[in-house]
Amino acid sequence: APLINLATIYNKYGNLEIAQSLLIESEKWALSNKEKLGEKFTFILCAIYNGLGSMFNNIDDSESATYYFYKALEVLPENNNRKFPIYNNMAIAFMDMNQLDSARYYYYKVIESNKSSLKNKSHSYIGICDLFTEKEEYKNAVKYAEEGLGLIDDTQLEENKSILHGFLGLSYLKQEQFAKAILHSKEAIEGIEKAGVIKQLIQAKEVLIGARLGKEKSLIFDYFEDYLMLKDSFHLSEVSKKVQDLQVKYETEKKEQLLVLSNKEKEVVTARAKTNLFLFLFALLLSVIATIIFLRERKQKREQIRLKQEQARLKNEAIEAQKREEELKENI
């Protein structure tokens, strides 16, 4: 247990080689003292494998992480409550590998179980919301975020509730339900600021800004349509009055000339309305294009990070293969 705790500390502060060596040493000690440990042997070995999996998750080696998480699950008895946090860890590893169906499978195992704790379930609801927003299935994200919020009533899980509010804000923003997006983003910011989680706080504030801008654009468009209708109505009434005046004159002398003038005035009104509408739609189009460019750049950055992670993994495999070849040569 002291070795495992020490490895956890080293892992936390980035000394991964020392943490790994301590956990491997702990595994050797546990296996050599299996009979002496008795019932504790299973749980100690599970803690070691889970620790190794978490360590590899922290360095984005998701394949090694899932290998040790599987080993941790294998040593535990069926329906043991210690499996649920490992299920969440497995799901995170599969998310990092973009294997979203596998990640969803493990999140559901926690959510649908009556034996998993409220804390484990809250982590799974956060994970499944992250998964659905990644897949752009925003209605499903809303469904599970609301379900998770309805379940969590523990004041110790306020941070998790705030994160779920953040996912609701993002999902409603993507569905252009700006009022709901603003409401949930404010809830998220209030809770996340207390917890001091910078990444989620920045995201929640970005969603709030986007929702407010979206709402203002929607209102501007509505006001502009009302303005055009009123403007057309006003000009038509003016034209109607002029026509009535012209009817009097029509009886005397200038029937054809006055009718031509009335038609020209109508054409001017219509042309102005079309020009104003074109200018507004052009500005709106520029805003949409800027948003698409921003989202595409962010997606490209994510893809670059994933490629770097894949290159690092391949490099590590090559180094391991070279080490094994050298060891084989030395043995020969």
Describe the structure.
With 332 residues, the chain is mostly helical. The protein is built from 13 helices and no strands. The protein has helices spanning 2-12, 16-32, 34-37, 40-58, 62-75, 83-96, 100-111, 118-134, 138-151, 158-174, 178-195, 198-250, 255-331. The longest helix has 77 residues, at 255-331. The chain is elongated. Mean pLDDT is 75; it is low at 219-224.
Mean pLDDT: 75
Number of strands: 0
Rg (CA only): 32 Å
Ends distance? 39 Å
Helices and strands, in order, run as HHHHHHHHHHHHH
Specify the structural class.
mainly alpha
What profile does the largest beta sheet have?
none
Q: How big a fraction of the residues is strand?
A: under 5%
Number of helices: 13
Low-confidence stretches: 219-224
Quick overview:
The protein has 332 residues and is an all-alpha fold. It has helices spanning 2-12, 16-32, 34-37, 40-58, 62-75, 83-96, 100-111, 118-134, 138-151, 158-174, 178-195, 198-250, 255-331.
Task: Describe how the helices and strands are arranged.
Elements: H1 2-12, H2 16-32, H3 34-37, H4 40-58, H5 62-75, H6 83-96, H7 100-111, H8 118-134, H9 138-151, H10 158-174, H11 178-195, H12 198-250, H13 255-331
Question: Main attributes?
Answer:
single chain; 332 residues; mainly alpha; 13 helices; elongated
